[in-house]
Amino acid sequence: MDPFEVRIQFLSLLRRLNASQQSIQKVVGYALKYFSGCGEDLWDCIVEECQKGSINNRINILYFLDSLCETSLLAKSHSGVVAQEGTQNSSFYVDYVSRDLGKIVDYVVPEGRQGLPNMMSTKQILESWRSKRVLDPQKVDEVMAALDSRNASLEADPSARSAPAATALPRSEVFKRIEEDRERHKRLRERRWVQPVSHNPHTHLPPQLASFLPLTDDGDGEEELTLDIEFENDWETTSDWNEDDDDAV
Predict the structure, then answer these.
(1) Among 109, 143, 156, 181, which residue carries the largest CB count within 10 Å?
(2) Cα separation of 30 and 201, whole Å?
(3) pLDDT tens digits, one per residue of 40-55
(4) How far is CA 133 from CA 6, 61, 196, in A?
(5) Is 79:61 a contact under the CB 8 Å cutoff?
């Protein structure tokens, strides 16, 4: 297909996007398939739909971006795929998400009461990206702080609290949103614990669940492993060795 046809078909997929994993993975696969020739154009489509779509469509796009980032990092960790495209330093769509994170969040959670339905889910995704190092934690913190500040201003304004939402959702859309929220929250709980994988391109390991940005120092290079979230959590919550441990041994 030529770039125009790729764009038209991608827009059609985005507009039919819902909370099901089947729908999300279909759009993710399409976006990655045409990344090499049309990546920037497809990203413009995502931003455009984030700006123009309904509140429900915008949160669907954000959850789609969550899966797209995970799959992009997984693709980056496979040296064969990366070498084929000649983009060793590229994280595919993760670079775009990092660049335009503030803009995307502003579209998904617009100012005023209109954005409140998407506030909690957006924070959950941002916290997930921060804890797994999908994006730069400092950049995520900045966006989270902006959201918290906006929410605090809304709560402090009595007229804003009592004012009706700019566009009330139809009853059918409300029930649809409830069902989709259940599906999304179920997915987030399933992905709460993941297996970090190595970023060493010279290792040939079977596919893992996801790949995240490593915490490296200047001299670590490509050999540095990703943060082992489960190990770090256990390490921080384990007490020092004491007499009870001697008895247990």
Answers:
(1) 109
(2) 25
(3) 999 999 999 999 988 9
(4) 31, 20, 11
(5) no
